[in-house]
Batch of 2 targets.
Target 1
Amino acid sequence: MLNGIGGLAQVPELRKRIVFTLLMLAVYRIGVQVPTPGIDAAALASFFSRVEGTLFGLFDMFSGGALKNLSILSLGIMPYISASIIIQLLTVAIPHLEALKKEGESGRKKISQYTRYGTVGLSLIQGLGIAIGLESMTAPGGVPVVTDPGWSFRLISALTLMSGTVFLMWLGEQITERGVGNGISLIIFAGIVARMPAAIIDTFRLIGTGELNTAFMVFLVVMMGVVIGFICFMERSHRRIPINYARRVVGRRVYGGQTTHLPLKVNTAGVIPPIFASSIIMFPATIANFIQVPWMQSVAQSLRPGSLIYEVIFVAFIIFFCYFYTAITFNPSDIAENLKKNGGYIPGIRPGRRSAEYIDKVLSRITLIGAIYVSVICVLPSILISKFNVPFYFGGTALLIVVGVGMDTMAQIESHLITRNYDGFMKGVKLKARRG
């Protein structure tokens, strides 16, 4: 693999794809620095300094710092992700969407179109909500964040933020088609990774001033390598259910008789559970920034990251959403029915309902393992910060996204290299058809 990546310069098509991807990500990072009109940047920065651990901090992480600057890309790609998840949930409840899902390529295009419409609607609503919320925000010194409040500011801000999200959606699709990797995932990946240089500089500054022990930092680096290796192992882990196909005789030909397997991923739900769990738990802390009520403030304080109540509820929500999202994206009954139609069966299990029950039983067990794994990774940052006074954020949803997207992108690069080597091997080879 490393030798193949070392020879990327010899593959013109792949080199063009990688350069195009990097240029599009550079355009995204430039857009993050373009501010929305009518905002006092200094007052906004002061406000965000006291809302860490709320939904603002979560959305700012996924937008790559664009929300803190209130740039034209402040909403990021989250409205598109939310619209995709909503459409996936509706395909279970609405027969028309379920039928479109089974129509193949034409149905997927129609669902993608609905997702785009949903993205525009969600981004307009969120943009208008942010604009209205900004008008009530003040910096610690009482300086208003919005210089000229009113409906003109609200409409301009909503349209600007919506246009930024649509632009990012188009940018992600261009990367997927003409670049390397999944464009939407790479945009989130770039936003998270963009924060790493600042964290590294702060860490070295603390080591230089003596606030951070060098030996402890070496221990942390070793532990980071172990955690990243563990994530790579778990993301590639799956349970193989053996599948046999019965032999069928059609005329003089014999079909079937093969043995294969059905792979079930340990972490089928991916990073969706921690995103949903964080959003739900952080909602009271976000509301408390606008409603100065004593009991609301106490509830928000107890639900901040690092507290015992927050961690227990966070883990419970992650486990729930792991099972919930797996249930709506993977249907054991459909798998068992397809196996039965194609003459496949699980050894020792009767085809049909019994096979569906067996697949569901295995899936439930490995989903529990995946949920515990995701919970451990997501709770890790709070333990490091609260117990060991680590001055930077390591772990959680961001690390799962970075490692997962990095692995998928490298797999696509490897696939391009294998295809190129296979074409070179087949060049000049003449295949002769056998006469019957």
Target 2
Amino acid sequence: MYTTLSVGTFFSSSGRLHSVYKMTGKLFGTTGVRKVYGTEFDLSMALKLGKALGTYLGEGSVVLARDARTTGPMIEDALAAGILSTGVNVVKAGMIPTPTLAFITMHRGYNAGLMVTASHNPPEYTGVKFWGPDSMGYTPEMESEIERIYTEEEFQVAKWNRLGQEQTIDNAVDDHVASILEQIDSKSIESKKYNVVVDPGNGAGSVLAPYLMRSLACKVISINSQPDGHFPGRVSEPDKESLTDLIKMVKDTGADLGIAHDGDADRVVFVTEKGEVIRGDRTIALLAREELKRSKKKPIVTTVDSSKIVDETVEKAGGKTLRTPVGDIQVALKMKETGSVFGGEAAGVFIFSEFHYAPEPFLTACRILELMASTGRSFGELISEIPVYPLRKAKMKCENTKKSAIMSTLAKSLPKAMEDTVEVITVDGIGISLEAGWVLVRPSGTEPVIRITCEAPTDEQVEKILADAKAEVERAINGF
């Protein structure tokens, strides 16, 4: 007989119960608002979101930035108009990465940061991410209040002579890079003269990532580094399938490291000198081991879809792992609650709380180079110490309006459909611990799909788990 854990609780590796946040809004997804422009999102929505944020804040200043998407300038202007109409000031930072926006929100003391982006989604998507003065994304409760104001249209309206003021800044990236360099042993990296290939995917990382590497005396080769909201070089989400050009370039040039980002550069994926694309959870495990050398008492935080290798590596290093629902805000919240210094998501999100609470891909890349320099070993050699368990992912199309009903059906049918179910965990979707492996089925907070992730000791076992889960999800979708 298996055990079921209800929504709102989850077990950490220590066996303790922990509370979690559950997102229930219709406008907001896993992180911020992300929708297809023209059919799900338009300028009037952006204007209202700006009014809602200005009303929520009441006063102060919002720093506003965007990624490379074609809709960015329009959405940015509409948001700014809405904010200014409430009497709140707007500071435009131009096209910069999301981590830079979050960093300067904290570093320069703005009341909020607003990023026009759809992150790793396809080019037809647009959206907005909200950041607080502590560099952390808005919590579900804060998003719910913004959504309430938006829906009820209870907007603060400033008089003609009390409107917010607008200004621009153009040195946000410089500030971010300078602060990153203060966190690392730059001289040790510079002494190695590493060859690095950087692939920002035509996104916002183009304005920072290659230049950061160059400042560390690396020989930098850039591909897909011209900002272009059509993402002509590859799809925005960096993974093994989309990084074929990067893999080839790393191998052809004999580079020491490959670095790839998504559209707004809050994610980073690394490629070894032999062209192997490394899963984010393995990189989490590698860096967690190093962080635990400084503070074994601080937990490492990751999400429910990370490999069990994170738990095993952390435990061997004398630490413990805490699991959260998917989403960088969930990781950041748990890190802040527990005093954790490091956490991340398997998708390529890494957070160093002593720097700030936003995803920090650029400091992560520097930490990798720093580790290579201090040990005299290649990235491939270092990551080879972190085992690989077969992990498979799939996503199945599902209308957003049907997700709730389908997940309710799966809550009853999926545990019975899987072989050797041991435990059911409803932290974020439906997680099922099996005698050999695990499977997680959850509705996407950013796309009209249901995602399936599974892991097992062997390829044969994980393929069987994925096939069984897909069949049951398909049955549930076809039932509506």
